[in-house]
Amino acid sequence: SKKKRLKKLFSHPWDTVIQAAMRKYPNPMNPSVLGVDVLQRRVDGRGRLHSLRLLSTEWGLPGLVRAVSGAGAAAPNAPDPPTPAPEPCSLKITLTNLVSVNERLVYTPHPENPEMTVLTQEAIITVKGISLGSYLESLMANTISSNAKKGWAAIEWIIEHSESAVS
């Protein structure tokens, strides 16, 4: 398994970032996300909202992965529930017979500046049952880093367009 951890600082208050994260898809930065369905919503005993969403995505495995594994293009579905809570998080799990990605996003108010939000994003990638597994885990980690930056840009885009729509 390979672990990838990223941090992002948003120059917006926590509630603004959370609202954008809840409306993250669809967006022009992530055209591979085709649709979002809410599977479950509940408020826990501490008043935190938990939302389980299913993202329908369209993406293909890199050519080398298809060649080594004999697999065709994959179109996994991944839950992604950013939860507006004191420490909201997102859990994204993508499972196929070859690859599992367990991703967690935690949005927290900046400890010193309430006008800023810290996002900690962590992914654990495991490639099973094929040769060159560690190489493919590294390749997936790089892809996750690239996609994370698109996700951050999407949140900024949503906030910018929300503010311009209001003013």
What order do the helices and strands come in, and which of them pair?
Blueprint: E1 2-10, H1 14-22, E2 33-43, E3 49-57, H2 63-69, E4 77-79, E5 89-95, E6 99-109, E7 117-127, H3 133-166
Antiparallel strand pairs: 1-7, 2-3, 3-4, 5-6, 6-7
Helix pairs in contact: 1-3
Provide a short characterization of the protein structure.
The protein has 167 residues and is of the alpha+beta class. 30% of the residues lie in helices and 37% in strands. It has a single domain, classed as 2-Layer Sandwich (Alpha-D-Glucose-1,6-Bisphosphate, Chain A, domain 4), CATH 3.30.530.
Question: Could you characterize the architecture of this molecule?
Answer:
- There is one protein chain.
- The chain has 167 residues and is an alpha+beta fold.
- It has one domain: Alpha-D-Glucose-1,6-Bisphosphate, Chain A, domain 4.
- The protein contains 3 helices and 7 strands; from the N terminus they run E-H-E-E-H-E-E-E-E-H.
- The chain has a 4-stranded antiparallel sheet.
- A hairpin with a 3-residue loop joins strand 5 and strand 6.
- Helix 1 (14-22) crosses helix 3 (133-166).
- This is PRELI domain containing 3A.
